[in-house]
Amino acid sequence: MIRILTVFVFVAALAGCESLYDDDGIPRIHSQRDADAYNATVSSDSQKLVCEREQVTGSNLRQFVCMTVAQREGLRQRSREDAEFLSRTLINRGGGSTPQ
């Protein structure tokens, strides 16, 4: 009986931890079906979700990652700007490897 009660308390604690994370008004997306259902409720194309399974660094497990089209474009633009900044910095400091 104590074992069953212990398991029940453990499961209840885990379920309670799930609700601690703020979802910013967007429901949790666990599958492409969830993303499609969410996208059906959104009128702006920039707010539609794009989901992919991505490799997590240091793990063999792939993670389901969703971003809005606007978030994805912003990330792409920031990455491009960062790459250009690093390239300019290395060239100006002479730190890049140049062919002889």
Characteristics:
100 residues; alpha+beta; single chain; 3 helices
The rough form would be described as flat
DSSP strand content: 5-15%
> What share of residues is helical?
40-55%
Number of contiguous helices: 3
Radius of gyration: 22 Å
The order of strands across the largest sheet is 1-2
What are the secondary-structure elements, in order, as H or E? HHEEH
The overall strand count is 2
Biggest sheet, open or closed, and with what strands and sense?
2 strands, antiparallel
N-C termini distance: 77 Å
Residue windows where pLDDT falls under 50 for at least 5 positions: none
- The assigned structural class equals alpha+beta
pLDDT averaged residue by residue: 80
Molecular structure report:
It is a single chain. With 100 residues, the protein is α+β, with helices and mostly antiparallel strands. The protein has 3 helices and 2 strands; from the N terminus they run ααββα. The protein has a domain of 66 residues. The chain is 50% helix and 14% strand. The chain has a two-stranded antiparallel ribbon. The longest helix is centred in the C-terminal third of the chain and has 25 residues. The model has no long low-confidence stretch (mean pLDDT 80).
